[in-house]
Amino acid sequence: MLLASVNVNGIRAAVRRGGLDWLAASGVDVLTLQEVRADDAQLRTALRGSVFEGWEVAHAPSMAKGRAGVAVLSRLPVEAVRTDVGPEFEGAGRWVEADVVDGDHRVTVASAYVHTGEAGTAKQDEKDRFLTRVGERIASWSAAGRSAVVTGDLNVAHTQDDLRNWKGNRGKAGFLPEEQAHLDRWAAEHEAVDVHRRLHGPGPGPYTWWSWRGKAFDNDAGWRIDYHWATAPLAARATRAEVGRAPSYAERWSDHAPVLVEYAV
């Protein structure tokens, strides 16, 4: 099962820029999207005429028009869909999970979008609470022995290897010790695995996000903030991982690059 995750920075904009064509050519079986920024009808219209038309769609749009929104698209059967990750975040468009069935295997695939945050503000406190809820969900999966994975834009660079200019970003949202501590707990306490890092090995990079401004992309001055965090049973089945970095700035269709992982399920 080839699973790809990407923050599309608006599904309709990604379609105009050729994003769906790129994803279709990759041969994915399951696709998770963040920052869809569309309602159900708009998402299905955007998929029309592509290989993804007719696929199973689990979508959690944001109640705030033009904001957030996450989705799971699957060519494989989907048994159940859940969007709850705590009452505070109902309707925020930040979480959706689907139970995907591939033969005799059932894999829970979640698409998560964590907002940027701002150090020392209520916005950062909200980000902290959301990451806590995600950790609780991972813990419940691990306790049940489920094959499950959180994919998506977490807006956290876990270590210095995940951020080119880590010295200049100390004390800033996205590289705060308290944010990184959440991911530390996922690994140490909940036995979750950062699959791409395990398969790739040490960094720096590969990065998954670069600013549209300046020469960040050309100089590879990026952040690795898009992940597959899998429970141990599923992580053991991960065989390869890659970042779909565009060949050039002109060929980018989002400020994020897709993260693709193949699982032998």
Automatic annotation (TrEMBL):
The record marks 155 as: Transition state stabilizer. InterPro entries: AP_endonuc_1, Endo/exonu/phosph_ase_sf, Endo/exonuclease/phosphatase, ExoIII-like. Residues 5-256 form the Endonuclease/exonuclease/phosphatase domain. It comes from the Bacteria. GO terms for biological process: DNA repair. Gene3D superfamilies: Endonuclease/exonuclease/phosphatase (3.60.10.10). The active site is at residues 113, 153, 256. This is Endonuclease/exonuclease/phosphatase family protein. Its cofactor is Mg(2+); Mn(2+). Belongs to the DNA repair enzymes AP/ExoA family. Keywords: Endonuclease, Hydrolase, Magnesium, Manganese, Metal-binding, Nuclease. The record marks 226 as: Important for catalytic activity. It comes from Phycicoccus avicenniae. The record marks 256 as: Interaction with DNA substrate. It holds the Pfam family Exo_endo_phos. One of its GO terms (molecular function) is endonuclease activity. Probably binds two magnesium or manganese ions per subunit. PROSITE patterns: AP_NUCLEASE_F1_4 (PS51435). Mg(2+) binds at residues 7, 35, 153, 155, 255-256.
